[in-house]
Write a structure and sequence with these properties.
- The chain is of the alpha+beta class.
- The protein has two domains: 31 residues; 176 residues.
- It contains three helices and 14 strands.
- The strands form three sheets. It has a five-stranded antiparallel β-sheet with strand order 1-14-13-12-11, with no helix packed on it. A five-stranded antiparallel β-sheet has the order 2-10-9-8-7, with no helix packed on it. A four-stranded antiparallel β-sheet has the order 3-4-5-6, with no helix packed on it.
- A hairpin with a 6-residue loop joins strand 4 and strand 5.
Length: 208
């Protein structure tokens, strides 16, 4: 009887420990996340050889500057997207004088004729006068040196909503959550921090 009692107690204790681990750690640790651990970066833009390059620092004429869109105001600099009149190609642009003058700040951005409407840049997320993220549901373009060098990640599923994330310790971060048409878990999200030393965005947290 004593042996049986000791065995029962051992089973009971093991069950309590298992339940405690599930409660503390959470079931999501054993589930496969719909958000990758890393988003690999390539240097340069996928479609930057399709249209003639515009030299970095080229100043737009006043008439050209009228077609700068997606302007995102930041205290030290403003970033935007410029599309030449009657032309499909679009380019990242930057202003350091409150929008009085705009200069070309990088190569051709992906556009409708180059890869489908999802590759249009739909949001500009300024990080500083030197760093910016430009995104859509399917593309993440980032520079940290004022547009001299760009890095890109293309998301083949095109089902993400990508937004900015508050900076921590000067890290560049973004948040990924389901787009309206996505089959990803409603209310879920993942945050990614830029890790240029390994050419990737690294998942720093998630909620599934």
């Amino acid at each position: 009887m004593k042996r049986l009692a000791k065995g029962s107690i051992a089973v009971f204790v093991a069950a309590i420990i298992a339940i405690t681990v599930v409660v503390l750690v959470g079931p999501s640790t054993t589930m496969k996340s719909p958000y990758p651990k890393t988003l690999p970066l390539q240097r340069g833009m996928t479609f930057d050889t399709i249209a003639p390059a515009r030299p970095w620092g080229t100043v737009l004429y006043a008439s050209q500057a009228q077609t700068v869109t997606l302007i995102s105001v930041k205290s030290k600099a403003e970033w935007g997207v410029w599309q030449a009149p009657n032309s499909a190609p679009t380019f990242p642009v930057r202003s350091i004088d409150g929008g009085a003058h705009w200069t070309i700040a990088g190569p051709l951005l992906a556009s409708d004729w180059a890869g489908g409407s999802l590759y249009y840049i739909t949001r500009v997320i300024p990080e500083s006068s030197q760093a910016v993220i430009m995104v859509s549901n399917a593309v993440i373009d980032v520079t940290v040196d004022g547009g001299h060098v760009w890095y890109q990640y293309l998301h083949p599923a095109s089902n993400w909503k990508i937004t900015g994330q508050a900076q921590k310790d000067n890290a560049i971060e973004l948040r990924v959550s389901p787009a309206r048409f996505s089959e990803l878990p409603e209310g879920s999200y993942a945050t990614y921090v830029l890790d240029l030393s390994h050419l990737q965005w690294r998942r720093s947290s998630q909620s599934i």
